[in-house]
Amino acid sequence: MKYKVEHRILTLIQNAVAESKPKPYSFSHNGIKFSHWKFSFREGWKTDFWMATGNIEADNGIDAINEFRTNLFATIPIVAFIGQSYTDYLREPWLVTKTGSNIGVYLYMEDRNPVGLMFMDEHKKALSALSNNLDIPKEFYLYWKDAINSIGYSGKLMLMFSALEALIKNKCGKKDWDKLDLILGTELREYLFAPNKGLRHRLVHGEYLSDLDIKSNYIDEIHKKVMSYFNTKILKEDLLNIDVKNPQRHLYGNKEGGMVFLERLGEKDLTLRNALKEYEGKDIVSSTKNFGIIRDGEVKKAF
């Protein structure tokens, strides 16, 4: 079956390739057409988005988007390198439609305002205790702050690894690997820090995250282990909350969303742009004048 995939890309790169003059700037690569999301010759580049579109032969819609995103995965990092600007697609909306059908599967993503965390009396007590503890290298806090302020998963992990290595250094500058076992537990320490095959070693030496690596959220696991270690071994009381939802909160990149099946009901075509406009500022829980939410399991299977 043939599917059309439309995928938004968030980027500061302004697409200025006029492959098909005099049409607005766009080009094709690796079976995908890349266009600036909103451009006019009068007003220029109006948004920080690109549109990526392509046609995929697949057994079903989910296979189609997976194949399309595999192609994006191969292309977008090179685009970011060449364009020297922020570029990401992993948390951007997409739509897959089947040729000859009024049905599509839609991943919606919405920006959300960041939610802060309280600094309480117990945290002030922890601040006093940690400020007076000379056994914790200042480099630990510097790396940990950089990790909190970072957005990318692999970059954040690398900073957390550096923070941990700073934390286990003794006064002679040597690393106490037994302390790392105490912090992470033997199993997690082995997976992350084992010589040659550990995740830290692989990332440092040019191997990217494998399919196995992304099955667990190691940022959350490390975070909880470190908070627990500080409570039990350094502060000697539970001053740090280890059950914070979404720890290492950030001012930027806060999104939430989900996947729904849509059916065209009105005059508007079922496209990514139209779906975004239709549900802008609305909770995507019910049908609208132009698009209906499909809940029939058999219809979904047939897609």
Based on the model shown, name its key terms:
alpha+beta, single chain, 9-stranded antiparallel sheet, 303 residues, two-stranded antiparallel ribbon
Folded structure, characterized:
The protein has helices spanning about 60-85, 120-130, 140-150, 155-165, 175-185, 185-195, 200-205, 220-235, 270-280, 295-300; strands spanning about 1-10, 25-30, 30-35, 40, 45, 50-55, 85-90, 95-100, 105-110, 255-265, 290-295. The chain is of the alpha+beta class and about 300 residues long. The chain has 2 domains: about 1-110 and about 255-300, no CATH class; about 120-235, no CATH class. Helix 5 crosses helix 6. The model has no long low-confidence stretch (mean pLDDT about 90).
Low confidence ranges? none
Beta-strand content estimate: 15-25%
Instruction: Give the helix tally.
Output: 10
List SSEs in N-to-C order: EEEEEEHEEEHHHHHHHEHEH
The outline comes out as elongated
Q: What is the CA-atom radius of gyration, in angstroms?
A: 24 Å
Compute the number of strand runs: 11
Structural class: alpha+beta
Helicity range of the residues? 25-40%
